[in-house]
Structure formats: structure tokens, C-alpha cells
Specification:
This protein has 418 residues and is an alpha/beta fold. It folds into three domains: 2-48 and 58-106 and 255-319, FAD/NAD(P)-binding domain (3-Layer(bba) Sandwich), CATH 3.50.50; 111-251, FAD/NAD(P)-binding domain (3-Layer(bba) Sandwich); 332-411, no CATH class. It is 23% helix and 25% strand. The protein contains seven helices and 24 strands. The protein has helices spanning 11-23, 132-143, 164-179, 200-212, 256-259, 301-319, 372-389; strands at 2-7, 29-35, 39-41, 60-62, 72-75, 78-82, 87-90, 95-97, 100-103, 107-109, 126-127, 148-154, 185-190, 215-218, 223-227, 232-235, 240-242, 245-249, 252-254, 286-288, 332-339, 342-348, 357-359, 365-367. The protein has a five-stranded parallel beta sheet, with helices on one face. The chain has a five-stranded parallel beta sheet with strand order 11-18-12-13-14. A hairpin with a 4-residue loop joins strand 15 (223-227) and strand 16 (232-235). Helix 1 packs parallel to helix 6 (301-319).
């Protein structure tokens, strides 16, 4: 019997476990999922908490209930992975031996890595919506904010859901207009990138949207220090951006257990893997999925879903002694909330940037265009997440490879995706 151990019960770990359970009978493989807690958080919903559109309780379900029958679930922390011994060492001292290991430990926000971020003003005038606690506290702060300068900042990349800080700007603009205080509030979007997005066509579109909504864009700003008391973001080159209220996306890193596992991760705790097969470069019987990887793909839930198909196929190939499929193309898509109950959809991969058109084919949701239909699609995705994506069900018309039909590919730039 094959022994498959999955570290992490989030999006990538849960959908991988469920697809593997459907792929192997109980006599063929044991599947064990390990996570330190039983709270499965629907992370895209955090964006809506500060605006009173969601509560934390709407976004959390027990991890164990998302796993199919026949999957073993261990609720404890992981100390480290011993690659030569094919063993996972748990915090309680027990060990799990594996034939195949799937690393799905995700990424964690590390605000303590930025000088001053968790100092004076933290959770008073400096917040992040990337945690339930931060998003909830920010809701109270926004409710009382009627004038001044709101700064939305990304400290460094990569981050989970890379478009979320920009979405926050659009939602804040709409939120303040509905309250009749928008003219008294300046909104500034601060990014380490040289544009509003990583690729030219999409950057031009969203840059225009920022201009239309009177949202200032500050680019190539690498935050070195957050002065909460003085209300300043300070960059490594000495530039400053003043604020009355700051919404900061902190540095992200890999799980601490990866940093403690010799040879498994990089300096940030992310797992290096082949960008097409998802096989770890550290050991052939280790695979990685989702935010835990250092792949040049977006850290978004859709990516983990698309990776899952390839990962499960390649685990089967590996255990059968067969060549792996090198067919993951970096496919990612996500809805960008643009305010006023509209959203824009983007779809791209390693080689091709987001372009106009329709998804998933010539008839479908409009791409790079804010519409009410896309907003409804974003809201509906929460149901799809719990009832189709996590259970490992195929979604009709949606495949792991990026579709080209329906896209205006002449506008595309063939480059890697950050």
C-alpha cells in the first residue's frame, strides 16, 4: 500500500487529498492530511469584511468536514520533514513515514519582518486585511474614517491573491462614495511594482481605472519602515508616503516547518518545484502545490485548483514508475472587484498575460472589463469553492490548461507571470 502524506489542510491540501482518494482505493493507498488547526478559512472573503459585507464566521468551516471519508486527518503542528528518512516529524514527537509527500503548507503573513509595522499604531491606524483579526479591526476603523489620507500598500511580493490590495482601493472608493465622504478622503495605492499590475495590457486597464476613481498610484516603492506614530511609510531609497490610515499587505513567507526542514525550502520557506510537473527539486517523491511553492505563478486559489489535476496525475505516474506529465502551464484566473457591484475577470498563464475577450470560450464571462456579471461570478465562487473545488469535482468547461479560444491573443505579451 502506498503511503501519501499531505502537509496542510488548506485549499491545495484539501483538494489534492480528495482527488487522490477518488483516484486510489483504500487498499491501494493511505492518505493522511496534517494541519495544526481545524479552521478552514475561505481567504478571498477577507477582502469584504472591512466593508461590512462579510463576517469571519461566514468564511470558516471545520477542515475535517471538507475531507472525504477514508482520509486520515491529524490535527497537530509539523516540526520538520526529514527528507533522507522519508519522514514527517510532528510537534508531539510522533512521526509519519511516507512514500509520497505533498507540501501544501501555504504562505503566512509576516508583519514582524518589516521595521515598525507591528509597533506604534498597529491595529489602531495601521492594519492588514490578510488575517481575520486584522480585517475585523479594519472594519471598525473604516466605519469611523470620514476624512484624511488612506494608503493601501504592498510591502513586497509574492503575496496571496496579488490583486486583493488593488481591489481594496476600488471597494474603498465605492464605500466612501456611498457614505458621502469620498471628496474628503484621498486614496493612495503604493506598490513595489513599476505599474499597477505585472503585465502591460492589464496594467494599462487597471491604471486607467485608478485614474478614473482619483486613486493616486505610487510605484517602485519598497517599504523599509512603517512609522505608525508619525503616519509615514518610508522606502529604502528615503521616499515617504504620509497616511492617516494605512492598510498594509505584509511580507509573506513559507511555513516555519519548511524553514526547519533541511533542503526542502528556499530562504523564504517556499518549496522549489518543477514549474510544469510540480515535483520538488529537493526529492523525487515530494510534490508541492499552491502558495507553498516558489513557482512563478500567481498565489491564488484558482492556481491550486489547476495544479491539483496535474499533481494527482503525476503522483500516480511516479508511484507507477512512469514519466511525469509536464503540462501545468501556470494557468491562473481571478475576479478583480472594481466597486459599484462590478468586477473584472483576468485569465493568464506563464507565457501569456491577461487580455480582453471572454472566458472560458468565445461565449462566456467578459475579460478585462468591469461588469455586474463578473461581480456575481465572484460572489458565486464561494459556493463553488466549498461544493466543487475542495471536494475535487470537475467544473464543466474549466480545465487546468489556460483556454485560448475567446481571447484577443494579438494583444498578449509572451512573458513569465510574477
Amino acid at each position: 500500500m502506498h503511503r501519501i502524506v499531505i502537509l496542510g489542510g488548506g485549499t491545495g491540501g484539501t483538494l489534492s487529498a480528495n482527488r487522490l482518494r477518488k483516484s486510489y482505493s483504500a487498499d491501494e493507498a493511505s492518505i493522511t492530511v496534517v494541519d495544526e488547526n481545524d479552521d478552514h478559512l475561505y481567504q478571498p472573503g477577507l477582502l469584504f469584511i472591512p466593508f461590512g459585507q462579510r463576517q469571519t464566521s461566514d468564511l470558516i468551516r471545520p477542515r475535517g468536514r471538507q475531507l472525504l471519508r477514508g482520509i486520515d486527518y491529524v490535527t497537530t503542528g509539523v516540526d520538520r520533514v526529514d527528507l533522507p528518512a522519508n519522514t514527517v516529524v510532528l510537534n508531539d514527537g510522533s512521526q509519519l513515514v511516507y512514500d509520497v509527500l505533498v507540501v501544501a503548507t501555504g504562505s503566512v503573513v509576516s508583519p514582524e519582518e518589516t521595521e515598525g509595522l507591528t509597533g506604534e499604531g498597529w491595529m489602531e491606524k495601521v492594519f492588514t486585511f490578510y488575517t481575520p483579526e486584522g480585517a475585523t479591526a479594519l472594519a471598525t476603523a473604516l466605519d469611523g474614517f470620514t476624512a484624511g489620507r488612506l494608503v493601501v500598500s504592498i510591502v513586497d511580493l509574492p503575496i496571496k491573491c496579488p490583486v486583493a490590495p488593488m481591489e481594496f482601493c476600488f471597494l474603498a472608493d465605492s464605500y466612501f462614495r456611498e457614505r458621502g465622504v469620498r471628496d474628503d478622503i484621498e486614496i493612495t495605492y503604493v506598490t513595489p511594482l513599476d505599474a499597477a499590475f505585472t503585465r502591460p495590457v492589464c496594467a494599462q486597464v487597471v491604471g486607467g481605472m485608478l485614474d478614473e476613481r482619483r486613486i493616486e498610484l505610487v510605484t517602485e516603492f519598497n517599504t523599509a519602515n512603517v512609522d505608525g506614530g508619525g503616519g509615514r511609510l518610508i522606502s529604502f531609497d528615503g521616499r515617504e508616503v504620509p497616511f492617516d490610515l494605512a492598510v498594509v499587505t505584509p511580507v509573506h513567507s513559507g511555513a516555519p516547518c519548511i524553514l526547519r526542514s533541511e533542503g526542502l525550502g528556499d530562504a523564504l520557506g517556499f518549496v522549489a518545484a518543477d514549474q510544469h510537473t510540480l515535483q520538488s527539486t529537493a526529492s523525487p517523491n515530494v510534490f508541492a502545490i499552491g502558495d507553498a511553492t516558489s513557482l512563478p505563478a500567481s498565489k491564488a486559489g484558482s492556481v491550486a485548483d489547476f495544479e491539483g489535476t496535474v499533481l494527482v496525475a503525476n503522483i500516480r505516474h511516479y508511484l507507477a514508475g512512469e514519466p511525469l506529465d509536464a503540462r501545468f502551464d501556470g494557468h491562473a484566473n481571478c475576479f478583480i472587484e472594481s466597486g459599484d457591484k462590478k468586477a473584472m475577470l483576468i485569465d493568464f498563464n506563464y507565457e501569456l498575460e491577461p487580455v480582453p475577450g471572454h472566458f472560458p470560450g468565445r461565449v462566456g464571462l467578459p475579460l478585462l472589463k468591469p461588469t455586474r456579471l463578473n461581480h456575481l461570478g465572484k460572489l458565486m465562487f464561494q459556493w463553488v469553492y466549498w461544493h466543487a473545488l475542495l471536494p475535487g469535482r470537475d467544473i464543466p468547461g474549466i480545465h487546468s490548461a489556460m483556454p485560448r479560444r475567446g481571447k484577443q491573443l494579438a494583444a498578449a505579451t509572451k512573458k513569465g507571470v510574477s
